[in-house]
Amino acid sequence: MKTILFSVLLLFFGFNRSYSQINSAADDPLRVIVIFAHPDDGDIKMGGTAAMMAQMGHQVKFLSLTNGNAGHHEMGGGALARIRRAEAEEARKRFGIAEYEVFDYHDAELLPELHVRLDVIRAIREWNADVVFGHRPNDYHPDHRNAGQLVIDSSYMVIVPNVAPDTEPLRNNPVFFYLEDRFTKPNPFSHDVVIGIDEAMDSKLYAMAAHESQFFEWLPWTSHRLDEIPDDSDERIEWMRQAWFGRGVSQAQIAGLTKWYGSERASQFRYTESYEIAEYGRYPTEDEIRMIFPMLPRP
Ligand SMILES: [Zn+2]
């Protein structure tokens, strides 16, 4: 009885890599995959966190499920997909992450079909992921919605050997997180983990600016702001800082920051990225969350 009690206590309090259900080996870097719809979504939603994670030793991969070949007002098809792929590779270098893969599913046509799900399962397995990030399955854009559905439908299935048997199953279901969004129906986003990214904000903007055809052409065209885009590359970055991240920190974000950083530090951040724990993945302990997000202070 004493031995059992001791083992249970060790599991709860003696947390380190060798006791956790991690897929990478105890001393190896933690392996993170971020799966989203378009070449730029991951950059917007978690670019600061990803840059910090990579700098602190995690192996980080971005994966865009579509090739971005529809989102432009002056070009499209294969020519646009080639530009998007090159921009993603440049963003990868600027973020300092290990990989930025772009699948060839067509933009604005992504559906949560079985063959795509199997590709997502293979991608998570081949990365030997410990942690997976994706969209929530409620969002204004059908590609985001369907990408979110595909990712969460792959949780658990990644450990089932008879599903996509051409790839080795994972030993443990990864921890899954949702990327932040502003949608409230049927339920608002829960700011379970909020990261203060001020120190990485310049790197995030510089890496995002690699997606020129998105941030300085297509997206401002959709919002009738194309005439505001400066020619100078530094001025473009400042324009992007204001246009995309000038809103300040919300009450929900401050509450999340306070939980992880304490109230004094929480009040100092100007830029944040938030994550919701997706309950179909393995549920992480608080210690494990601090290991996944090594920029969080130790209690
Ligand atoms: Zn998108």
Describe this structure in words.
The chain is an alpha/beta fold and 299 residues long. The longest helix is centred in the first third of the chain and has 19 residues, at 77-95. The chain is built from eleven helices and seven strands. A seven-stranded mixed sheet has the order 3-2-1-4-5-7-6. 42% of the residues lie in helices and 13% in strands. Residues 1-16 have low confidence and may be disordered. It has one domain: Rossmann fold (3-Layer(aba) Sandwich). It is globular, with a radius of gyration of 19 Å. Helix 2 packs across helix 6 and helix 4 (114-126) packs across helix 5. The structure holds zinc ion. The site of zinc ion has 5 residues, from loops.
Topology:
Elements: H1 2-13, E1 31-36, H2 41-55, E2 59-66, H3 77-95, E3 99-105, H4 114-126, E4 131-134, H5 142-154, E5 175-179, E6 193-196, H6 201-208, H7 212-222, H8 233-245, H9 251-261, H10 263-266, E7 272-277, H11 286-292
Parallel strand pairs: 1-2, 1-4, 2-3, 4-5
Antiparallel strand pairs: 5-7, 6-7
Helix pairs in contact: 2-6, 3-6, 4-5
The protein binds zinc ion.
CATH topology category name = Rossmann fold
Examine the secondary-structure arrangement and name the CATH architecture. 3-Layer(aba) Sandwich
The number of helical runs is 11
Which superfamily, in CATH terms, is the homologous superfamily?
A: LmbE-like
Question: How would you spell out the order of helices and strands?
Answer: HEHEHEHEHEEHHHHHEH
Task: Give the strand line-up of the largest sheet.
Answer: 3-2-1-4-5-7-6
User: What is the β-strand count?
Assistant: 7
Helix/strand/pairing class, anyone?
alpha/beta
